[in-house]
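Review form for a predicted model. The reviewer records the input and the model, then writes brief findings.
Reviewer: anonymous (R2)
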Amino acid sequence: MIKAIVFDFDGVILESANIKTEAFSEVVKDYPKPQAEAFAAYHMSHMGISRHVKFRYFIEEILGQPYCENVEQELADRFAEIVFKRVIKCPFVPGAREFLERNYKRYALYVASGTPQEELQQIMEGRDLNGYFKAVYGAPMKKEEIVESICSGENFHRGEMCFVGDALTDKMAAYHTGLNFIGRNTEDNAKDFKDVTYRVDNLMQMEKLLGGM
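Model under review:
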């Protein structure tokens, strides 16, 4: 029986995944077009990982320059400013708010996001979401580390937990930690999720799925 649910955030709770894709492109728009396009492609194939990892890759592998913490931080700060303004106003994923309202007392709910912890907390407060979740975790912790921390700290068995995500990194985090996985369907993950047993278009569909896990 499922007792705890770990949610990715962008594209699972809020329709913010495309906001970040747009923000990554906007931050590097003044660089040569081939390099900006290469970075956009890298981001799309590595959804769900920390922006700092992505910007470091951009500097070292795409620009071919020595790593510079100041450059990385400047890119990350510009990115965060763009994202925060848009995420505060973006809509919920279909069924997300309804599911949280109906089920936050039934299950222990957690967030495991690649968004930096401090920024994630600001977004949670800005959208009045903290009351639904037992704990919220962001970068620099990796999602596998977050799951392990929850398991050990709350003494849940793996079969009593599930991970809800919209990216390949979410699916792999669930598989690597032995959790059930529920995929939120999007146009971008159809190929990566073709072998996923549990998939939903609307998060309210999870109510029925959870009863069968």
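Findings: The mean pLDDT is 94.
Further findings: The longest helix spans residues 69-87.
Recommendation: see findings above.
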